[in-house]
Amino acid sequence: MRHLLKLLFFTVFTCCAVSLFMACDEASESSVGRLSPLFNFVTKSTLAEKSFDSLTVVALNTVRGDSIIIDNEKTVTSATLPLSYVGTKTALVFKYSKDTIDTVWVTHTNTEHFISMDRGVAMFYHIDKVEHTKHLIDSIAIVNSEVNINEKENIRIYY
Amino acid sequence: MKKKIFASIISTLALFVVSFPVLAQQQQAQRKVQKKVISKIPKEVFPLYNGTFVGVDLYGIGSKAFGGDFLNSEVSVDVNLKNRFFPAVELGYGKVDKDNNNISYKSSAPYFRIGMDYNLMFKKKNLSHMYIGARYGFTALSYDVKSAGLDDDIYSGKVPFEYTGENTTAHWMELVGGIRAEVFKNVLMGWSLRYKAKISVKDNVHSTPWYIPGFGENKSSNFGITYSLIYKLPF
Fold it and tell me: Is the pLDDT of residue A3 over 60?
């Protein structure tokens, strides 16, 4: 009788544990989506955040010719800007006003990467080189060359 | 006649009142003697070797049947030393075959754990006991991952995604707590709860392994459970 009670206790406990663990398994993360490098804008003389009265960023050679990524936004101090999945050099045009424009070319290595069943497959990048015009931009530094799920600052533009 | 009856009742009561403390003193003296005798019995000394146990985990198979993603089965062998220490080896095989969000992931590999349990009821000469313990786990695995690919909706172009035979290794530690109970002669049932902490998992260039046999989903830590049928070998 005592043995049967033990058997019953073990069976009931196991059923409860299985149910609990099945419920815990159901929690999941959402898909990671498109990964893009994070650009921070900095004033070179003070190293303070640079804020624009107006900023428009256009990606060149896109499906629709040129695509507006940021449209006339105020007080922008940073931006995540998309790179190409297939091409290895992406051109981005920064418009500060009607007559003040800079172009930034990012040379990158693309690596498609499976993250998990919940977060899916995404493109990771290694930033090899950044070139730019010097109308308003003073210089550009690659702070972190790896663009992945860590979401760190990648490129710092000094004005 | 009445006087005689009254006298006999009085004398009986008097005898009881007088004799009760004497009886109580006698009982106390007996208890003291018993205590002395008990304290003189030497503690049970267990030999170094107290038997070998072979167990099969049923939870890994059961959880798949209940709708889990992973199929797991393992065999464990542990040895009772001094009724206190139970060095253990666990050999298992894990498998996953999952399709979700246009991604297909397949993997199957053996895994290995080594460690020791400590019997919290070591003073009792009993097969049933509670224990705590630790394990080190290792696996070398291969996996296939396929997806519909990446469509670039901004710059145009499509990148296919299909990688098969991706190889990696994984190491982890486990803290174990559990209970075993003898349900029939030399047959035990037991469950254990396990906290698993990842030591390292090697990522590949195009993929991060999602499932680690014996560890579970590739996260910094997991909780696990085993429910085992155990047999004490007759030697």
Answer: no
- Give the gyration radius of chain B's Cα atoms: 32
Indicate the SS3 state at residue A26.
Answer: coil
Beta bridge partners of B163: B145
More confident site: A138 or B14: A138
Q: Does A22 touch chain B (CB under 8 A)?
A: yes
Find which of A10, A57, A109 to mutate to test the B interface (most B CBs within 10 Å of its CB). Answer: A10
- How far away is chain A from the Cα of B30, in angstroms, using its nearest Cα? 34
Candidates B161, B189, B227; nearest CB to A121: B161
Is residue B2 pLDDT above 90, yes or no? no
Q: Quote the CA–CA distance of A43 and A138 in Å, as a whole number.
A: 9
Q: Name all contacts of B217-221 with Cβ < 8 Å and 24+ positions apart.
A: B217/A116, B218/A116, B218/B170, B221/B195, B221/B196, B221/B197
Average pLDDT over residues B51-70: 87
Q: In the structure encoding, which two tokens stand for residue B111, read together?
A: 């895994």
Which residue shows structure tokens 């696990």?
Answer: B224
pLDDT in tens, B12-30: 444 444 444 544 555 665 6
CB contact under 8 A, A87 and B155: yes
